[in-house]
Amino acid sequence: MSPLPSELAYVPFVSVENMMRLVHHLGIERVLTDLADRIEADFLRWELFDKTPRVASHSDVGVIELMPTSDGEMYGFKYVNGHPKNMKDGLQTVTAFGLLADVDTGYPKLLSEMTLLTALRTAATSAMAAKHLAPKAAKTMAMIGNGAQSEFQCIAFKAICGIDTVRLYDVDPSATDRCAANLAQRGLTVVACRSAEEALEGAQIITTCTADKQYATILTDNMVGSGVHINAIGGDCPGKTELHRDILLRSEIFVEYPPQTRVEGEIQQLDPDHAVTELWQVISGQVPGRTAARQITLFDSVGFAIEDFSALSYVLAAIEGTEFFANLDMIADPDDPRDLFGMLQRARD
Ligand SMILES: NC(=O)c1ccc[n+]([C@@H]2O[C@H](COP(=O)([O-])OP(=O)(O)OC[C@H]3O[C@@H](n4cnc5c(N)ncnc54)[C@H](O)[C@@H]3O)[C@@H](O)[C@H]2O)c1
């Protein structure tokens, strides 16, 4: 019989089922709020992280990406895809998993599902950015694109920014119906709309979260009045945007990591030296966020590796002392580190 793996061989693994149990155990609003706090805290130490644009492998129908970063103590990466055509085939547009490792030994410390965690961290990041940029009295959000991410966005904006009304629109009315039904009894007034224009009525925050592998125009210039905050989620790949260029020219633009956003975000439509502000600088008080009531603020979100690092760190701390993980025998760890072959040999005996 093979000898039992050593303690070091085991890596905590959070499956989709355990992620769901963890979220229900803590409560989704608390998870979103805690995640936003964790991401904000990591944005405050932005400068000490390793930063690189994500490594993308494009095909005609989608993209597969690796998103690495490290704070010098822990290293993390996420695998994530984006395939807008998947939904029509009954598959998720975005799926993901990720890993955290100890920089000192290189041994993994956590392997986790990240499809749910990406939706949670994206919503937490959006709401955290809006807390700094949106009009303070904002109560109504237009939610355009009512797919997998949409309920997470709505709940995060309620929990973190105090939104009390969401106005939903999707080209597919059944998506709006599902989103509205899922948001019932969550303390939000939910209004299903028949057009993007109708969804924008009275909204101080506009979230665009559609999926289409093209330069789309979800919002045209005339639809966007002064003083709003735009949270643009779906333009996150070369050749995949949601806003008309003229809106960008009227907006104060805030981004995660310019070298990545200039390739992937809405600002791929602008000159490469168009002025943008890095969100971490607003959070750290180095530069102001919104400076005038009539200003249009735009968070050109593409999703950056540090947000996933924060999310994985949060999960690692949250599962401690719980049953919401399984130990995976993932690292070959022979007693004599040079006797890897002997370990294999003994497993046959
Ligand atoms: N910025 C980030 O960090 C981040 C993170 C996750 C996902 N995303 C992006 O967010 C987008 C949404 O992801 P998802 O998982 O919810 O996708 P999804 O496929 O589940 O939903 C997209 C929805 O958009 C709708 N839609 C398409 N074109 C539209 C239009 N013109 N007007 C209104 N609605 C329209 C579709 O009918 C669908 O319901 C994707 O583009 C994804 O790549 C970004």
UniProtKB/TrEMBL annotation:
Enzyme class label: oxidoreductase
EC number(s) per entry: 1.5.1.49
Keyword Manganese belongs to the record: no
UniProt keyword annotations, A-Z: Oxidoreductase
One Gene Ontology molecular-function label: oxidoreductase activity
InterPro entries the UniProt entry points to: NAD(P)-bd_dom_sf, ODC_Mu_crystall, ODC_N
One Pfam family matching this protein: OCD_Mu_crystall
Cited SUPFAM superfamilies: NAD(P)-binding Rossmann-fold domains
Presence of keyword Oxidoreductase: yes
NCBIfam families tied to this protein: PRK07589.1
Record protein name field: Delta(1)-pyrroline-2-carboxylate reductase
Organism ancestry: Bacteria, Pseudomonadati, Pseudomonadota, Alphaproteobacteria, Rhodobacterales
